[in-house]
Write a structure and sequence with these properties.
There is one protein chain. This protein is an alpha/beta fold. It has 15 helices and 9 strands. The chain has an 8-stranded parallel barrel, surrounded by 8 helices. α11 packs across α13. The longest helix has 19 residues.
Length: 364
Amino acid sequence: MTADDEIRGTALGSAPVPLSVLDLVTVGAGRTASDALRTSVELAKLGEARGYHRYWVAEHHSMPGVASSSPAVILAHLAAHTGRIRLGSGGVMLPNHAPLVIAEQFGTLEAMAPGRVDLGLGRAPGTDGATAAALRRTDRLNEGADDFPQQLAELTRFLDDDFPDGHPYRRIHAVPGPVQATSPGGVQSPHRPPLWLLGSSGFSAQLAGMLGLPFAFAHHFSAQNTVPALDLYRESFRPSAVLDAPYALIGVAALATDDEKEARRQVLAAALNMVRLRTGRPGLVPTPQEAEAYDFSPMEREFVESWNANVIHGTADEVRAGLDDLQKRTGADELMLTANAHGGDVRVRSYELIADAYGLPTPA
C-alpha cells in the first residue's frame, strides 16, 4: 500500500465523495466526560460498520463542553474497539507539543493499529491565549505559529528517522519507529502515519500544496474562506512522494434528525454553546430546552443566524442535498462530518440517518 492509497478514500453508496467523521467529544449539560467518550466508541463502531472512511478527533483545551484535550489517548481507546476504520487527529496542534513527543505518540498508535493512523496537524492553539501559554510554558505564542514549518520539518525527520549526519538530533530516535528496523534482528512496520495539514485560512493551504501533502479545511467554522483556501492549495500543489495530485477534505457541520423541527432545536443549542464560547463563557453544551428559553440579545441572535447558516441540518434527505451541493461548490475530495448536539444519542442517530440516505453499507 502506498502513501497515496492510505490517504485517498473511496466513495460508497450514492455519496459523491468519501464520508468521514470529526468528533469533538462534546459533553452536554447533565452528562459526564465518560458519557461523551462512550459515545465516541459507539460512533467509531458505527462509522466502521457503515463505511465512513476515517474518524478524527480534534485537540481542544480548557473547554468544559469538549473532552478532546488528548487526541492520542482517545485514539488509542478507539483503536481497541475498531479494526478497519482509519483513526486520526483533526488535529494535533503542533505548536503545543514537542515534535518528538508527537512522533512517539503516533508511532505508538501506528503500532497499535498498523496502516490506519492519520496525523493531522494544526498551527492554532486550539484554545485561548492564557491556556496556550500554560501549555507551551511561554507567553511568546506567535513564535510557535511562525515556527510551524520548522516544527513540521523536525517532526517529519523524527517520523522518518532521517536527521542528517552532524545534526544535534541525529542520535535521537522516536520509538516506536524506523530505528527498530535497523537494530540487530529488527523488523519494523512499513507504515508511517501520513501527515495532513489543517487550516482555516490560506497559510496551511499553501504550505500543504508546496509540500505535496493532503489538506483538511475547517469549513465548519470558517466557511467564508473555504473556496479561496482550496483554490490556493490546488494552485500551490507540487507532486511529492506522498501524493501525485491534490487531495482536500473539508470539515462540515451536519446534523440529521428524524424531524426537521428537532434539527432546528438541536442546532440552536449548539449555537448557544458557541455564543458562550465566543464571549468568554465556555461551558457544557446546553439542552435544547435551555436554548429555547434563552433570551438572545440582538447581537447574539445575529451570530446564531450567521453560524447556523453554515450548519447543514434537517431531515436526512435535506442534509444529503446540502452535502451534495457543498461538495459541488467546493470540489472537496472528502467530506468530514461533525455533528454537534447536546445528546450522544442524537449524534449517533445523525450519522445513521446520513448513512441510510446515501445507501452506505449496512452491517451483515
